[in-house]
Each structure stands twice: as C-alpha cells, then as structure tokens.
Description:
Elements: H1 2-16, H2 20-27, H3 31-38, H4 46-56, H5 60-66, E1 82-85, E2 90-96, E3 104-111, E4 116-119, E5 127-142, E6 145-150, E7 154-159, E8 163-167, E9 173-180
Antiparallel strand pairs: 1-2, 2-3, 3-9, 4-8, 5-6, 5-7, 5-8, 5-9
Amino acid sequence: MDARLAARLAELRAEHGWSLGELAERSGVSRSTLSRAERAETSPTAAVLNRLCAVYGRTMSRLLSEVEAEPALLVRAAEQPVWEDRPAGFVRRSVSPPHAGLRGELVEGRLVAGADIAYDRPPVPGLEQHVWVLEGALEITVRDVAHHLVTGDCLRMRVWGPTRFRSVGPEGARYALAVVLP
Length: 182
C-alpha cells in the first residue's frame, strides 16, 4: 500500500502542475519529506497526510481509498484497510471506506496511552465528524476548547480549524469516527 500511496501522491501533484517546492509552500511540508514520500522511501505520518489532504481537498480516507481497489458494498472485517503511524501511536481502520455517490464514511481509530496527534487544519473545511469513544478516554480539542470524552461519549463537530486528539487514559483509546463531507 505504501508504494501505491506514494504513486498517488506524485500523481496528484502532477495533476495540479506543481513542483515539489510549490507543494511544500502550499502544505507546509518540506521538499525532502515530500520527495521521500513520493518515492516510497518513507511512509508519511498522519499529520503530513492531513496537510496534503487539505491541499488536495480530500479526506484522509478518500486519499487512502484511491490507492485501493473499488470498495465493495459489504466490507468484511478482514478486508478493511488498516494504516499505522507507529511513531505517533495511531492505528486507523477504514471500516466503511469512501464510495462514489456517498458522503459518509466510518473509521475506527486506536491511540496508545499518551498518544497526542495534532492536525493543523481539516482535510476539507467544514468537514462533519462524530467521534464515539468505544474504549478508554480521549481529549479532543476543537477551536481551542478541550472536550474530555470517556467510554460511550460522542462529540459532534464541524471542523474548520486545528484539532487535537489525545489519549488520556492509562490503557489507550479506541473510537469510531463518522466523517461526512459538507
């Protein structure tokens, strides 16, 4: 999957007619990181992918689905794509990947204890998100307001600016994320 993701990132940049330098300026990601990601020398972190998705106007799930085969109507558990940002302690399972003609998708996120992921912007401004904590505790910061969620709690939001997901429990956190395009 890393090789297909690298190729898709290179394709997107070419489709926009941007040099690595232009993409670096637009995304805030260094030229060297972009170059290494496009050559599959490194797998981009969640934060880097989020910045690229914002520039390309895609959700992370949509970008990842573009490097997979056309999703079926029924997605068996064993076939749900999993992506990991090991240094950040984040595992993302695309439970219901994006599909042509549908605006929503469902993601399972897992953060190890103490994991802290900050996104400087939404991949698509006004993106609707519903975060339902399945296990553990999360602190989610939206518009400089921290929301403490425990098992069973759900936070509903439209994302216009930076967000932060932080696992605050000793056992980590597992959550469902419903994403709806505006």
